[in-house]
């Protein structure tokens, strides 16, 4: 068992205790961040005269050779080591000798792991942002393509008013745009370097923490060494932001699943993102959408678990904090996978435009516009509301849409109706007359699309 702390102990750690305590099985995934941080650390130590230039060069060469060998598979990270830090240091000493023993000067595993986790998180926030941007670009493409694809808008899962598919996609654009903003907020707030905080109280070595932070692309060093080694707020923020992403993906997936049903038939999901039944040959199941919907709970669970872990921990570092890694690693992989797969599904999905428009007509989504027609012809709104209610009841009895009524049938309920009622309640008119900011009319949507294009171009 390769340990960095054996001098104080006279008995070997029990194997079960060692395995329970070890983190190598999961923290090996940020060997690159550990080596990157160590190179910055020894570069600073040499600048401060704590290491010689020769020692710095030997250590950096050794670290880079370890990174290369892990990358190409000639060096394997095994559970012989307690954690990724001991793996790197032990292999460094094996390769360059006594100079490698100076790597840990002025540093604790507490500030080292805090740095590694921040570097990893920063990398993953950037990766999540790229995936969110790709999803937004896909949504914008659909918005441009479907400005005249009419469909019902819903409240309470009941058809309410006609909109366009472009407008519907635009609602999700706003959601995922906010998700990107949250990622950027997390990056900005977390981008302070904990290295040099030591175990909890800094160090007597004359470290230049500002220089180390600069080398690693941070905005500066953290300002309290106790907080530096015990801060996991940025991970809780990331898990919260990813939970919101997953909530948005789950809502979207729910709609795709409904739209894919026989009763709606709004969409056809590409074969690559569907599966069949082992017993029912007619089935084409929306499995990817269902799995994305289901995996939201997995990410929520990671958030609640870390919140619960952190709520009772006194300052400063405690071993409980090791629980952050598996939770965050799994949640990040889950969210990234769901974003990539959902975007792929959305890029290949086919929309049944005629069925969507027919559904809007048959759902009386133009009833409000029929009432507005009467108001525009001098009928008080409350009376107009009652008249259109009678029209709907009549259509339900006849099993027809408002558009299918003859002018005589309209006039039998209210003599105010004239031939222009048909134009007033057409899907196109119902949508195109709504041009306030954020509405589905073409003029309003063109302004929004231009704004969204500018937003993506500026990023």
UniProtKB/TrEMBL annotation:
PROSITE patterns per record: FUMARATE_LYASES (PS00163)
Top-level taxon of the source organism: Bacteria
EC annotation from Swiss-Prot or TrEMBL: 4.3.2.1
First-listed, main subcellular location of the protein, grouped into a coarse class: cytoplasm
InterPro entries assigned to the protein according to its UniProt record, in alphabetical order: Arg_succ_lyase_C, Argininosuccinate_lyase, Fumarase/histidase_N, Fumarate_lyase_CS, Fumarate_lyase_fam, Fumarate_lyase_N, L-Aspartase-like
Span of domain Argininosuccinate lyase C-terminal: 364-432
One GO BP annotation of this record: L-arginine biosynthetic process via ornithine
Localisation per UniProt entry: Cytoplasm
Key words of the record: Amino-acid biosynthesis, Arginine biosynthesis, Cytoplasm, Lyase
Pfam families: ASL_C2, Lyase_1
CC per GO annotation: cytosol
GO function terms (MF aspect): argininosuccinate lyase activity
EC category: lyase
Family: Belongs to the lyase 1 family. Argininosuccinate lyase subfamily.
Name of the protein: Argininosuccinate lyase
Gene name of the record: argH
């Amino acid at each position: 068992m390769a340990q960095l702390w054996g001098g104080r102990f006279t008995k070997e750690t029990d194997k079960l205790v060692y395995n329970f305590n070890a983190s190598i099985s999961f923290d090996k995934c940020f060997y690159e961040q550990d080596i990157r941080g160590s190179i910055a650390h020894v570069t600073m130590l040499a600048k401060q005269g704590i290491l010689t230039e020769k020692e710095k060069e030997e250590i950096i060469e050794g670290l880079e050779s370890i990174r290369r060998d892990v990358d190409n598979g000639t060096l394997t990270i095994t559970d012989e080591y307690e954690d990724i830090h001991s793996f790197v240091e032990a292999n460094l000493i094996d390769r360059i000798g006594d100079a490698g023993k100076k790597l840990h000067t002025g540093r604790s595993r507490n500030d080292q792991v805090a740095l590694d986790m921040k570097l990893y998180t920063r990398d993953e926030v950037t990766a999540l942002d790229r995936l969110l941007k790709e999803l937004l670009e896909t949504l914008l493409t659909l918005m441009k393509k479907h400005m005249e694809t009419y469909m019902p808008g819903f409240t309470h899962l009941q058809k309410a008013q006609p909109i366009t598919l472009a407008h519907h996609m635009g609602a999700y654009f706003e959601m995922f745009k906010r998700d990107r903003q949250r990622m950027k907020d997390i990056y900005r707030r977390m981008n302070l370097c904990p290295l040099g905080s030591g175990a909890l109280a800094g160090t007597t070595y004359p470290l230049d923490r500002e220089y180390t932070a600069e080398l690693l692309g941070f905005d500066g060093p953290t300002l309290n060494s106790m907080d530096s080694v015990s801060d996991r707020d940025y991970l809780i923020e990331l898990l919260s932001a990813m939970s919101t992403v997953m909530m948005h993906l789950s809502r979207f997936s729910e709609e795709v699943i409904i739209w894919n049903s026989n009763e709606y038939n709004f969409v056809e999901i590409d074969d690559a993102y569907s599966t069949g039944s082992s017993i029912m040959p007619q089935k084409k199941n929306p499995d990817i959408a269902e799995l994305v919907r289901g995996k939201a709970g997995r990410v929520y669970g990671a958030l609640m678990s870390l919140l619960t872990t952190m709520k009772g921990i006194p300052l400063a570092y405690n071993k409980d904090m090791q629980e952050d890694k598996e939770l965050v690693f799994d949640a990040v992989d889950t969210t990234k996978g769901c974003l990539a797969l959902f975007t792929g599904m959305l890029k290949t999905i086919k929309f049944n435009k005629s069925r969507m428009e027919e559904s809007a007509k048959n759902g009386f989504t133009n009833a409000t516009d029929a009432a507005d027609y009467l108001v525009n012809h001098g009928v008080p709104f409350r009376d107009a509301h009652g008249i259109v209610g009678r029209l709907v009841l009549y259509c339900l009895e006849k099993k027809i849409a408002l558009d299918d009524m003859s002018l005589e049938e309209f006039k039998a309920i209210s003599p105010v109706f004239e031939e222009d009622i048909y134009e007033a309640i057409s899907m196109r008119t119902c949508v195109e007359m709504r041009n306030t900011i954020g509405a589905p009319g073409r003029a309003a949507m063109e302004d929004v699309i231009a704004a969204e294009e500018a937003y993506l171009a500026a990023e």
